[in-house]
Design a protein that fits this description.
The protein has about 230 residues and is α/β, with parallel strands linked by helices. It contains 12 helices and 7 strands. α5 links the parallel β6 and β7. The longest helix has 15 residues. It is elongated and about 50 Å long. About 30% of the residues are buried.
Length: about 230
Protein backbone atom coordinates (compact mmCIF):
# COMPACT_ATOMS: atom_id res chain seq x y z
CA UNK A 1 0.00 0.00 0.00
CA UNK A 2 2.77 2.46 0.88
CA UNK A 3 4.66 2.17 -2.45
CA UNK A 4 1.43 2.82 -4.39
CA UNK A 5 0.71 5.91 -2.30
CA UNK A 6 4.25 7.19 -2.82
CA UNK A 7 3.75 7.13 -6.59
CA UNK A 8 0.94 9.66 -6.22
CA UNK A 9 3.26 12.33 -4.84
CA UNK A 10 4.04 15.33 -7.05
CA UNK A 11 7.80 15.18 -7.54
CA UNK A 12 9.42 18.62 -7.57
CA UNK A 13 12.86 19.88 -8.59
CA UNK A 14 13.99 23.20 -7.10
CA UNK A 15 16.27 25.45 -9.15
CA UNK A 16 17.42 28.54 -7.23
CA UNK A 17 20.90 29.81 -6.45
CA UNK A 18 20.05 30.84 -2.86
CA UNK A 19 20.59 28.03 -0.35
CA UNK A 20 18.30 29.58 2.26
CA UNK A 21 15.53 29.98 -0.33
CA UNK A 22 15.81 26.33 -1.37
CA UNK A 23 15.78 25.19 2.25
CA UNK A 24 12.66 27.23 2.95
CA UNK A 25 10.96 25.86 -0.16
CA UNK A 26 11.85 22.28 0.76
CA UNK A 27 10.37 22.69 4.25
CA UNK A 28 7.23 24.35 2.87
CA UNK A 29 6.69 21.79 0.13
CA UNK A 30 7.41 18.65 2.11
CA UNK A 31 5.01 19.76 4.84
CA UNK A 32 2.23 19.41 2.26
CA UNK A 33 0.61 16.05 1.73
CA UNK A 34 1.32 14.69 -1.73
CA UNK A 35 4.35 16.87 -2.51
CA UNK A 36 7.98 15.77 -2.52
CA UNK A 37 11.24 17.55 -3.38
CA UNK A 38 13.42 15.19 -5.43
CA UNK A 39 16.36 17.51 -5.96
CA UNK A 40 17.89 20.97 -5.58
CA UNK A 41 20.05 22.80 -8.10
CA UNK A 42 21.81 26.14 -7.94
CA UNK A 43 22.94 26.50 -11.55
CA UNK A 44 22.56 25.27 -15.12
CA UNK A 45 24.78 22.17 -15.06
CA UNK A 46 23.36 20.57 -11.92
CA UNK A 47 19.82 21.61 -12.94
CA UNK A 48 20.05 19.73 -16.23
CA UNK A 49 21.72 16.73 -14.63
CA UNK A 50 19.08 16.43 -11.91
CA UNK A 51 16.19 17.04 -14.30
CA UNK A 52 17.37 14.25 -16.58
CA UNK A 53 18.04 11.84 -13.72
CA UNK A 54 14.99 12.49 -11.56
CA UNK A 55 12.37 13.22 -14.25
CA UNK A 56 10.32 15.45 -11.92
CA UNK A 57 6.66 16.32 -12.41
CA UNK A 58 7.22 19.98 -11.59
CA UNK A 59 10.32 22.16 -11.96
CA UNK A 60 10.34 25.33 -9.84
CA UNK A 61 12.69 27.63 -11.74
CA UNK A 62 14.13 30.96 -10.63
CA UNK A 63 14.85 33.46 -13.42
CA UNK A 64 18.04 34.80 -11.80
CA UNK A 65 20.82 32.22 -11.83
CA UNK A 66 24.60 32.73 -11.75
CA UNK A 67 26.13 32.70 -15.21
CA UNK A 68 22.87 32.11 -17.05
CA UNK A 69 19.39 33.46 -17.56
CA UNK A 70 16.75 31.13 -16.15
CA UNK A 71 14.62 31.75 -19.22
CA UNK A 72 17.29 30.22 -21.44
CA UNK A 73 17.12 27.04 -19.36
CA UNK A 74 13.47 26.39 -20.17
CA UNK A 75 13.94 24.64 -23.55
CA UNK A 76 16.96 22.75 -22.22
CA UNK A 77 15.00 21.46 -19.24
CA UNK A 78 12.12 20.47 -21.50
CA UNK A 79 14.54 18.52 -23.68
CA UNK A 80 15.87 16.38 -20.83
CA UNK A 81 12.65 16.07 -18.80
CA UNK A 82 9.91 15.96 -21.41
CA UNK A 83 7.03 15.26 -19.00
CA UNK A 84 8.01 17.95 -16.49
CA UNK A 85 5.95 21.11 -16.19
CA UNK A 86 7.91 24.26 -15.48
CA UNK A 87 6.65 26.83 -12.99
CA UNK A 88 8.60 30.06 -12.67
CA UNK A 89 9.17 31.23 -9.08
CA UNK A 90 10.85 34.60 -9.19
CA UNK A 91 11.46 37.92 -7.52
CA UNK A 92 12.01 39.55 -10.93
CA UNK A 93 9.18 42.02 -11.56
CA UNK A 94 9.54 42.12 -15.32
CA UNK A 95 6.33 41.38 -17.31
CA UNK A 96 8.27 40.99 -20.56
CA UNK A 97 10.47 38.30 -19.04
CA UNK A 98 7.43 36.55 -17.61
CA UNK A 99 5.73 36.62 -21.00
CA UNK A 100 8.84 35.29 -22.74
CA UNK A 101 9.01 32.43 -20.23
CA UNK A 102 5.41 31.48 -21.07
CA UNK A 103 6.10 31.66 -24.80
CA UNK A 104 9.01 29.26 -24.27
CA UNK A 105 6.82 26.73 -22.50
CA UNK A 106 6.61 27.59 -18.80
CA UNK A 107 3.17 26.76 -17.39
CA UNK A 108 2.97 29.65 -14.96
CA UNK A 109 4.65 32.37 -12.95
CA UNK A 110 4.54 32.94 -9.19
CA UNK A 111 6.23 35.93 -7.58
CA UNK A 112 8.28 35.26 -4.47
CA UNK A 113 6.36 37.99 -2.66
CA UNK A 114 3.17 35.91 -2.82
CA UNK A 115 1.85 33.95 0.17
CA UNK A 116 3.12 30.34 0.54
CA UNK A 117 -0.35 28.92 -0.05
CA UNK A 118 -0.41 30.59 -3.49
CA UNK A 119 2.72 28.68 -4.50
CA UNK A 120 1.30 25.37 -3.26
CA UNK A 121 -1.93 25.97 -5.17
CA UNK A 122 0.03 26.89 -8.30
CA UNK A 123 2.07 23.68 -8.08
CA UNK A 124 -1.07 21.57 -7.78
CA UNK A 125 -2.88 23.30 -10.63
CA UNK A 126 0.09 23.23 -12.99
CA UNK A 127 0.52 19.53 -12.22
CA UNK A 128 -3.14 19.07 -13.26
CA UNK A 129 -2.32 20.70 -16.60
CA UNK A 130 -3.66 24.17 -15.91
CA UNK A 131 -1.81 27.41 -16.52
CA UNK A 132 -1.10 29.69 -13.55
CA UNK A 133 -1.09 33.36 -14.56
CA UNK A 134 -2.59 36.45 -13.01
CA UNK A 135 -5.05 38.45 -15.11
CA UNK A 136 -2.60 41.25 -15.95
CA UNK A 137 -0.09 38.73 -17.26
CA UNK A 138 -2.74 37.03 -19.39
CA UNK A 139 -3.54 40.38 -21.01
CA UNK A 140 0.15 40.96 -21.68
CA UNK A 141 0.58 37.52 -23.26
CA UNK A 142 -2.48 38.08 -25.44
CA UNK A 143 -1.11 41.42 -26.59
CA UNK A 144 2.30 39.96 -27.36
CA UNK A 145 0.88 37.07 -29.35
CA UNK A 146 -1.50 39.30 -31.26
CA UNK A 147 1.35 41.55 -32.37
CA UNK A 148 3.20 38.59 -33.87
CA UNK A 149 0.23 37.24 -35.82
CA UNK A 150 -1.53 38.64 -38.87
CA UNK A 151 -4.76 40.42 -38.13
CA UNK A 152 -7.52 38.23 -39.52
CA UNK A 153 -10.31 39.56 -41.74
CA UNK A 154 -13.97 39.49 -40.73
CA UNK A 155 -14.55 36.59 -43.10
CA UNK A 156 -12.09 34.69 -40.91
CA UNK A 157 -12.46 30.91 -41.29
CA UNK A 158 -12.32 30.77 -37.48
CA UNK A 159 -15.88 32.09 -37.51
CA UNK A 160 -17.04 28.74 -38.86
CA UNK A 161 -15.44 26.93 -35.92
CA UNK A 162 -16.89 29.36 -33.41
CA UNK A 163 -20.36 28.94 -34.93
CA UNK A 164 -20.30 25.24 -33.97
CA UNK A 165 -20.08 26.05 -30.25
CA UNK A 166 -23.19 25.44 -28.16
CA UNK A 167 -24.49 27.95 -25.66
CA UNK A 168 -23.19 25.85 -22.77
CA UNK A 169 -19.74 25.56 -24.37
CA UNK A 170 -19.62 29.35 -24.72
CA UNK A 171 -20.52 29.69 -21.03
CA UNK A 172 -17.66 27.37 -20.07
CA UNK A 173 -15.23 29.34 -22.24
CA UNK A 174 -16.35 32.65 -20.72
CA UNK A 175 -15.84 31.31 -17.18
CA UNK A 176 -12.37 30.04 -18.05
CA UNK A 177 -11.68 33.56 -19.27
CA UNK A 178 -12.59 34.80 -15.78
CA UNK A 179 -9.90 32.55 -14.35
CA UNK A 180 -12.22 29.91 -12.89
CA UNK A 181 -11.06 26.31 -12.43
CA UNK A 182 -13.10 23.26 -13.39
CA UNK A 183 -14.65 22.82 -9.93
CA UNK A 184 -15.64 26.50 -9.77
CA UNK A 185 -17.17 26.32 -13.26
CA UNK A 186 -19.14 23.24 -12.26
CA UNK A 187 -20.48 25.00 -9.16
CA UNK A 188 -21.38 28.14 -11.13
CA UNK A 189 -23.26 26.18 -13.83
CA UNK A 190 -24.75 23.60 -11.45
CA UNK A 191 -23.18 20.70 -13.31
CA UNK A 192 -20.63 18.08 -12.29
CA UNK A 193 -16.90 18.56 -12.79
CA UNK A 194 -16.78 15.61 -15.21
CA UNK A 195 -19.30 17.39 -17.44
CA UNK A 196 -17.08 20.48 -17.48
CA UNK A 197 -14.15 18.32 -18.60
CA UNK A 198 -16.32 16.77 -21.34
CA UNK A 199 -17.32 20.22 -22.57
CA UNK A 200 -13.67 21.28 -22.64
CA UNK A 201 -12.66 18.21 -24.63
CA UNK A 202 -15.32 19.05 -27.21
CA UNK A 203 -14.33 22.73 -27.28
CA UNK A 204 -10.65 21.84 -27.78
CA UNK A 205 -11.64 19.69 -30.76
CA UNK A 206 -13.98 22.26 -32.33
CA UNK A 207 -11.57 25.17 -32.01
CA UNK A 208 -8.46 23.06 -32.72
CA UNK A 209 -6.62 24.12 -29.57
CA UNK A 210 -4.63 21.69 -27.46
CA UNK A 211 -5.06 22.90 -23.89
CA UNK A 212 -6.57 25.49 -21.55
CA UNK A 213 -3.84 28.04 -22.21
CA UNK A 214 -4.37 27.98 -25.98
CA UNK A 215 -8.13 28.17 -25.37
CA UNK A 216 -7.63 31.19 -23.11
CA UNK A 217 -5.61 33.03 -25.75
CA UNK A 218 -8.03 32.01 -28.50
CA UNK A 219 -11.06 33.14 -26.51
CA UNK A 220 -9.58 36.58 -25.82
CA UNK A 221 -8.53 37.11 -29.43
CA UNK A 222 -12.00 36.16 -30.72
CA UNK A 223 -14.01 37.94 -28.01
CA UNK A 224 -15.37 34.75 -26.48
CA UNK A 225 -14.08 35.91 -23.09
CA UNK A 226 -12.57 38.97 -21.44
CA UNK A 227 -9.69 39.09 -18.96
CA UNK A 228 -10.96 39.94 -15.48
CA UNK A 229 -8.38 42.65 -14.83
Amino acid sequence: MQPAAAKLKIRILLIDDHTVMRLGLRVLIENQQGLKVVGEASGRADALELAEREQPNIILLDLSLPGTDGIDLIPELQAVAKEARILILTGVLDPEKHTRAIHLGAMGVVLKEKAPEVLIKAIEKVHEGEVWLDRAMVANVVGQRSRFRDVKRKDDPEAAKIATLTGREREVIALIGEGLRSRQIADRLFICEGTVRNHLTTVFSKLEVSDRFELLIYSYRHSLAKPAL
